[in-house]
Every structure is written in structure tokens, then in C-alpha cells.
Design goal:
The complex is a heterotrimer of chains A (about 350), B (about 290) and C (about 250). Chain A is mainly alpha-helical and about 350 residues long. Chain A has helices at about 5-20, 20-30, 35-60, 70-80, 90-115, 120-135, 170-190, 195-210, 215-240, 250-265, 270-290, 295-310, 310-325, 330-335, and strands spanning about 150, 155-160, 160-165, 245. In chain A, a hairpin with a 2-residue loop joins strand 2 (about 155-160) and strand 3. The relative contact order of chain B is 0.20. The interface between A and B is large, with 41 and 43 residues.
């Protein structure tokens, strides 16, 4: 199940190196705008993490969550709330605290929603996302609809030595890139693990998985909690990069965009949603550069993807590579991701 | 809280509940019968409100606005069903969610392109602008009562159509067995178009009659959609009866919630939903 | 001496006003092949679903090897040693044959909440998977996608998955439904082979097959047990003749 063909691994490696080397060629291509584009790329990389974490639910476990941004935004709020106002927070304290609180909230939401399925699950996750949105939007302690600022970025210290300076744009860029690679590897590892095998089975035929002796609800809940925690990591990075968090980051539009990235990239392939995040955000910036009405264009793109590219870019890539390799028919369907 | 306030708030909550039912019924009908989740339902509500604004500006008459607005909504519904929703019947809910989400982005943007981003008001029609006296100290606006009456009449009408007519029988059968309905010689294709258009028109009508009560503003459909989803989830997806009681419950909670527990006002309805789900994961009337 | 492996007492299932299974007292002996006969709507499949936990019973109890199963969910019952196959093919179509059986075999691990080690490195699961595949006769097909296999092979796979859960009692709901003659014969010999090792509860419409493999039969009509006995006893039973077999032209 889920072996990425070698040629696609190479292609992904190439893209990764291209990103890794951006600071070397950014100035040459974009001149004075290079730093601006590096920030943009950082944002996209963070979205890629969010999209990959959502793929664990949507593409792997078959749990279509329309409220995944809840954890993304919640992480930012937790960071803002526990950071000292005029001092840098200690990352070794705030990062685990943020991730743990996302895991706990994920557990609560999972517990309330996991017995529902199909369309119910979609609606209920959406509603919980909005609950969080209104909670922060109407709150006094969290700045209401303006959101909150994080004046000082968390300090990454080892004893007295500063390991990373997150105030630097380039450091944030590389930190996010490293996190993206890490999340990708974690998810691939999960997919190959006994746990991941059960999730794949649940997606394909939950009834059968119960009959052969698995308590499927437990697996779905754990899957939800892991996805929530990884989305929390993305939220932590986003809040650190921008230095502020606002309610719209928890809102259902953000959840919808994340879901779109997953489908656009190819659900269930893990690498696909990361590609989806890049394509989605690059299109977004491109449309925004020449019209105020870019939402209309994005909406059109979304409809077009649903109608014409339901397996996403990742699905199309896999199919293309398989045709090239002309592998014998056996087991192809088995490997194909379950879009 | 004295008795008068309670009475007024009770009337308000019933009025809000009935309006919510009117809008939610379209959402739950379309899901229950066609198996389609239409996230753009809230956008239809918004279009209805803007149409009311535009037609009242143009003609000066709210009744003319209603007479023009409803056919426009029906046409919008037919176009969307024929060109977009038609591709989704056999697909995963995931794709329905994404396509209709894309539709929201387009419609919200169209709204700002046509009417701009300002907030507008729609005057209450003059005949209905008065208040009736309930007690010595208490008055209640006629327009709110009219809105309640319209919703109530439509609710009863819907009940009658679904329970007593041939079309209703077809609708109920279509919900459970598409092949059987086709075997009876009924064109499911046309039936689905009618139902979707009716659902859109119900949302649009909801938007039109609530325009004079609240203002008309960009993004107004989004919050309505979410509340309707909560109503439908509480009642049980596909159940008209569920949508009715779900809407009444949410009406009560969102009117009395802020008065009784102000600190939880904005999340109250979601808490109610969470509790219902804990007890009955498929809704009250599924 | 015969020893009961599974016993139901007054097992009842009502759907609204309809009584699908009505006060069924059933005893399965260890090592026997026990077939359940009855016209459509007699409640046979519902009975299997009650035993496997797929449906909750309205009243009555199920005891398996001194273990009370009443009210337990399917995944727990599976772990107590009751395996089942389904009337409608119920597999993972997009996975390979091997992966289908693997998932069933992996369920016998203490837990599958393991996140780090690749699943395929678990030797015990692999050997259980392979032996189950061999037993159901699909070893040569192990890398085929389940959806690409013939209907008969998918039915075999269904049995392979059940075997991989290391059950002691097999509940088989119409394993031969929809099969051609040759496939049926294959399956009858597979069932005979399984009978050497397992206790079997079999629901089957194919009379020839039933009488060929069953040690005892239970005839159900309208949710009730009409009679239980050896094939000879059932064949000669007046009651059964009248109520059921007679209408179908007897034997």
C-alpha cells in the first residue's frame, strides 16, 4: 500500500532542493522582492504542513473534516496567550504546550464527532470549527475580531547559546521547511505502520474492519488527534512567522481552503496535498496580483478541480508514471491511493 | 427578567425559529431527497436579501420585490442544479462540499461586484410598519408577526405537500428508492431539479423577508449557513420535522441564551448541538 | 460426550413490530458442522448478525465457551474466537488479496496502535497471512487486487480473512451464494476441509451442499426454530415436510 514510485520521489526531492536553495538564487531572480517572496514561500510551506495533516484524516482515514483550521488557529491563540507580553517565550516550553493543547482539543472534538459519519461528520466538524471561531471572535481576553499579537518570537536557546533566531526571515523559512520534511516523513512512517494499515482499511470498508476485530473508533480518534497536533505545529509556525493570530485563521474558509489543497494535490498520497498547497497559493497570489475579485477565480478553479481533476495532481502524476513504467497489471489498484 | 420581557423574548424566539426553519427546510430537503449537501445554501439566502434590496430600490414596493425575487431564485436554482449539481449525484460528499464551497466564493464575489461592500437597509413595508398592543406596556411589531405567519403557512403547506399529495409521495419515495420511483414512470431528473430549485427559493425567500429585519451586508449568508447546519444536524439530516423542532430549539437558545448566560452567548447553540450529538449521534428525528 | 461451544437462550430480535428472530434456543456442538435452513425471511441472516454482534438482540442471551457475548460489539466477539463471513462479499476491493488477509491477521496482535515500525516487518503476521491464504486456496493470487478477482475467488478471500482472525467457531452466511457449479464444488470441499479443525455454523440455500457437509441441521420458519436434528431426522420429519420442504418439492 502507498509506495511512492521512485521517479516521483526524485521529482519531490528536486522540488525540495529547489526550495532549500532559494536564498542562493532568490536575489538573482526577484531582486529586491526576494525577501518578500521568501516570506510568501514560508507561508505556503506552513499551509503544506496543514494540508498534509488534513490528508491523514481525509485521504488516509476517510474522515472528511471541514473544521481542521480550528487546530491551526487554536495553536496560534495558545501561543499568543502563554507568551509573556514583552519578553521572548522559551520554545521548549511553549511548543510542547501548544501541541499538547491542540491534542487535547482534538481529543475532545474527536470524542464528540467520531460516532457520526459521512455528511454528518462534515457538518459537525464544520460547526465545531465555527464554535471556536465565535468563541475567539467574541472574546475579550483574546482581542475579539482583531486577534492577538505576539510581540517577541519564541527564543530557541540551549543553555545560554541561541540555536535559532526566529526573528530572522531566513531562519523561519528554513525552520518551516525542516518541519514540512519532518511531517512528511512522520506521515509516511505512520502509513506503513500497523496503525496506518488499519486506517487504510477503515477508509476502504469500516464495517469489515470491525468484523475482523478492530475497535475502529479508537483508531479514528487517534488519527484525529495526530492530525490535530500536526495542524497545531503548522499554526504555531504561522503565528510565529506573522507575529499575530486572528479569528479568521480558525474559520471555515480556512478549513475549506485546506480541504481544497488536499483534493487539488491528490488525497491519500501525502505528498500531493503539499503540492496542492503550493499550486493553490501560487494561483491565489497570481490572481490577486491583477484583480480584486480573485475569490471568484479561485472558486472557479475549485469547481473545475472537482469536475475535471478529482484525483488531484498527485493522482494524475501517479497515473502518468505508471503508464510510463508500464508495470504488469497486478496490484496496481492496490497501490493506488483511495481518492 | 419580568413576565413581559419573557413574553416578548418568547415571541422573538418563535419568530426567529420559524425563519430558521424556512431556510433550513430547503437544506434538509435537498439532502434528504437528493443526497446532496449544498453549502451554497447560505449564499442563496444572501442573494435573496440583496434581490429584495435591489427590487425595493427600483420599484419602491416590497410586494413587487417578492413577486420578482422568487422567480429569479427559482431560475438560479434550476441553472445551478442543471450545470453543476447534476455532476455530483454519484460522487462522494467531499466533492459536493468542495464544489458548493467554490460556488460560495463566486457568489460572494459577484455580490460585491454588483452591489459593492456597503451595508444596506430595506424599509419595512408601510402597511406592516405598525405595532400591535399586547398589554398596557407591551407592543409587538406587525412585520415580525407577518414574517412568522408567512413561515408558518409555508411550513404547513410543506407538511401538506409531503404528507398528502402525489408529489409528496414521490418525494418521500425518492428519498428511499430512486429506482422504484423511476419504475413508476416518474422522471427523477425533473423531480430533482424541482426540489433543488424549491430549496433555493426557500432560502431566497428567507433572505427577502428578513432583509427589513436585519440589514443587508456582504457575507451575511455564511453565518446563516452555519446556523442552518446546526439546525439540520440537531433535527436529523433529511427530516423536515427535525428541521422544525431543531429550528425552534435554536430559536429559543439564541434568544434566551445571551440573557441567561451572557458569557457563553456566541457558543451556546454549538454547545446545544454537542449535547444532542452525545445523546443522539444521528440527530433527534433521524 | 458432546460439548456445546455456543448456546443461545430465548434469543429474540424485533424490528419495530416485526419479530425477525423469535425465542431461538440453539446449541452448537464442538467440532460439528451445523447448517441452518429456512425459507427467505426466516431470520437466518439476522440470527448470524446477532451471534456476531453486528446487531444487538432485543432479548435473550448468547454464550460462547462460557463467555457471555450478549450485547458485545463485533470486534470484541471476534477476539473471543468467533469469525464470520458475509452474505454479500465484504472485502477491501482496492487492496491486494494479501493486504486484505494481512489486515485480518494483524488484528490478532496485542494492539495495532503501533506507529513506528513498518507493519510488513512483523513476521508473525506475515506467516499467519500466508497460511490463511494457503488454507483458502488463494496463495497463488496473493498479489492480485481483490477487485480484479473472480466472484468465487472473492468469496474464498472472505473465508481467508475470517481464518486469519484465528477463530474457533466460523459463522458462514451463504458462502456459496451466487456461485457456479464448479466454484460451489470447490467450496464444499473447502468447507469439508475446514470442518476437520473448526466448528461451523452454515447458512446455505443449496440443499445438496447442505446435506453433503452438515452434521446437524436446524430448520427455521418465521424466526422460530422448527426442528433441529441430523440430516436423516430432518428429512423424515413430518413437521419440516409440511412447513417448508414440502413446498419446495422435497428431496
Amino acid at each position: 500500500m502507498y509506495n511512492t514510485p521512485r521517479s516521483i520521489t526524485l521529482f519531490l526531492g528536486f522540488l525540495f532542493i529547489l526550495l532549500l536553495c532559494y536564498p542562493l538564487y532568490g536575489d538573482l531572480i526577484f531582486g529586491s522582492k526576494s525577501s518578500f517572496y521568501m516570506q510568501k514561500l514560508t507561508t505556503i510551506i506552513i499551509f503544506a504542513i496543514l494540508a498534509m495533516s488534513l490528508d491523514l484524516l481525509v485521504g488516509v482515514s476517510g474522515l472528511v473534516s471541514m473544521g481542521h483550521a480550528l487546530f491551526f488557529g487554536f495553536a496560534g491563540y495558545v501561543l499568543a496567550l502563554i507568551s509573556p507580553e514583552y519578553d521572548a517565550a522559551n520554545i521548549w516550553i511553549v511548543l510542547p504546550a501548544v501541541l499538547a493543547s491542540c491534542a487535547v482539543i482534538g481529543l475532545v472534538v474527536a470524542f464528540l464527532t467520531i460516532k457520526t459519519s459521512g455528511i454528518y461528520f462534515i457538518m459537525v466538524t464544520l460547526a465545531f470549527g465555527q464554535m471556536a471561531f465565535y468563541f475567539f471572535n467574541d472574546s475579550d481576553f483574546a482581542g475579539g475580531s482583531d486577534g492577538m499579537y505576539i510581540m517577541m518570537k519564541p527564543a530557541v536557546m540551549l543553555g545560554d547559546i541561541q540555536l535559532l533566531n526566529l526573528e530572522s526571515k531566513q531562519t523561519i523559512f528554513y525552520t518551516s521547511l525542516a518541519c514540512m520534511a519532518l511531517v512528511y516523513l512522520i506521515l509516511r512512517m505512520l502509513l506503513r505502520s500497523p496503525f496506518g494499515q488499519v486506517l487504510v482499511g477503515i477508509h476502504a470498508n469500516e464495517h469489515r474492519v470491525k468484523a475482523i476485530g478492530y475497535n475502529t473508533n479508537h483508531y479514528k480518534i487517534v488519527s484525529f488527534v495526530i492530525a490535530a497536533t500536526l495542524a497545531g505545529l503548522a499554526g504555531f509556525l504561522a503565528a510565529t512567522q506573522y507575529g499575530f493570530v486572528n479569528p479568521s485563521q480558525l474559520g471555515w474558509h480556512t478549513s475549506g481552503y485546506a480541504l481544497m489543497m488536499v483534493i487539488m494535490g491528490g488525497a491519500g498520497t501525502i505528498f500531493g496535498p503539499a503540492l496542492g498547497a503550493f499550486v493553490f497559493e501560487i494561483l491565489h497570489s497570481f490572481f490577486e496580483s491583477f484583480t480584486d475579485h480573485w475569490l471568484m477565480l479561485m472558486g472557479t478553479v475549485m469547481i473545475a478541480v472537482v469536475l475535471f481533476l478529482p484525483n488531484g495532481i498527485g493522482g494524475a502524476l501517479l497515473e502518468f508514471v505508471r503508464k510510463l513504467e508500464k508495470k504488469p497489471v497486478q496490484a496496481q489498484d492496490g497501490e493506488k491511493s483511495d481518492g | 427578567m419580568d413576565l413581559t420581557t419573557i413574553l416578548i423574548q418568547l415571541l422573538n424566539s418563535v419568530q426567529y425559529g420559524l425563519l430558521l426553519f424556512l431556510i433550513s427546510s430547503g437544506l434538509t430537503l435537498v439532502f434528504g431527497i437528493m443526497g446532496v449537501i449544498n453549502l451554497a445554501h447560505g449564499a442563496m439566502y444572501m442573494i435573496g436579501a440583496y434581490l429584495a434590496y435591489a427590487f425595493v430600490e427600483w420599484s419602491g414596493s416590497f410586494s413587487v420585490a417578492l413577486l420578482l425575487g422568487i422567480p429569479v431564485m427559482l431560475v438560479v436554482g434550476i441553472i445551478i442544479e442543471r450545470f453543476l449539481i447534476d455532476h455530483l449525484y454519484k460522487k462522494d460528499h467531499l466533492f459536493q462540499v468542495l464544489l458548493t464551497f467554490g460556488l460560495i466564493l463566486i457568489l460572494n464575489d459577484l455580490q460585491s461586484l454588483i452591489w459593492g461592500n456597503d451595508t444596506h437597509g430595506v424599509p419595512i413595508p408601510e402597511v406592516l410598519s405598525g405595532s400591535i398592543t399586547l398589554t398596557d406596556t407591551m407592543q409587538y411589531p406587525v412585520y415580525r408577526l407577518t414574517v412568522s405567519a408567512i413561515c408558518l403557512v409555508l411550513a404547513l403547506g410543506m407538511y401538506w405537500v409531503i404528507q398528502k399529495t402525489r408529489l409528496g409521495m414521490t418525494i418521500r419515495a425518492g428519498a428511499s428508492n430512486r429506482e422504484m420511483v423511476e419504475a413508476l414512470g416518474i422522471n427523477v431528473r425533473t423531480l430533482f431539479t424541482i426540489i433543488f430549485a424549491a430549496g433555493v427559493a426557500l432560502a431566497g425567500l428567507g433572505g427577502m423577508i428578513s432583509a427589513p429585519l436585519s440589514s443587508v451586508y456582504p457575507g451575511m449568508g455564511d453565518s446563516v449557513l452555519i446556523i442552518c447546519l446546526v439546525v439540520v444536524v440537531i433535527g436529523g439530516i433529511g427530516s423536515i420535522k427535525g428541521a422544525f423542532w431543531g429550528a425552534m430549539l435554536i430559536g429559543l437558545v439564541s434568544t434566551f441564551g445571551p440573557i441567561l448566560i451572557p458569557s457563553l452567548a456566541s457558543v451556546m447553540v454549538y454547545l446545544v448541538m454537542a449535547i444532542v450529538l452525545l445523546v443522539k449521534p444521528r440527530g433527534l428525528f433521524a | 460426550m458432546v460439548e456445546a461451544i455456543l448456546k443461545t437462550e430465548k434469543l429474540t430480535k424485533r424490528f419495530g413490530g416485526l419479530v425477525a428472530v423469535d425465542n431461538v434456543d440453539l446449541e452448537l456442538f464442538k467440532g460439528e458442522v451445523h447448517a441452518i435452513l429456512g425459507p427467505n425471511g426466516a431470520g437466518k441472516s439476522t440470527l448470524v448478525n446477532l451471534l456476531s454482534g453486528d446487531l444487538p438482540s432485543t432479548e435473550g442471551s448468547v454464550v460462547f465457551e462460557d463467555q457471555e457475548l450478549t450485547g458485545l460489539p463485533p470486534y470484541v466477539i471476534s477476539h473471543y474466537g468467533v469469525g464470520r463471513s458475509f452474505q454479500k462479499t465484504n472485502i477491501f476491493p482496492k487492496l491486494t488479496c494479501f493486504e486484505n488477509v494481512w489486515l485480518a491477521a494483524q488484528s490478532r496482535q496485542k494492539t495495532s496502535m503501533r506507529f513506528f515500525r513498518p507493519a510488513r516487518s512483523m513476521k508473525a503476521v506475515e506467516s499467519l497471512t500466508l497460511s490463511s491464504l494457503e488454507r483458502c486456496g488463494l496463495l497463488h493470487q496473493k498479489d492480485s487486487a481483490a477487485s480484479s478477482m473472480s466472484y468465487g475467488e472473492q468469496r474464498q478471500l472472505e473465508i481467508g480473512m475470517m481464518l486469519a482472525t484465528q477463530p474457533r467457531l466460523l459463522l458462514m452466511d451463504e458462502p456459496m451464494a451466487g456461485m457456479g457449479k464448479e466454484e460451489s464444488e470447490m467450496l464444499v470441499s473447502l468447507i469439508k476441509d475446514l470442518a476437520k479443525e473448526y466448528t461451523l455454523l452454515l447458512i446455505e440455500h443449496d440443499m445438496d451442499a447442505v446435506f453433503a457437509v452438515a452434521d446437524r441441521l436446524t430448520v427455521m420458519v418465521n424466526g422460530r426454530v422448527l426442528e433441529t436434528g441430523t440430516p436423516d431426522q430432518i428429512r423424515s420429519s413430518q413437521q419440516v415436510q409440511e412447513a417448508y420442504l414440502g413446498n419446495e418439492g422435497g428431496f
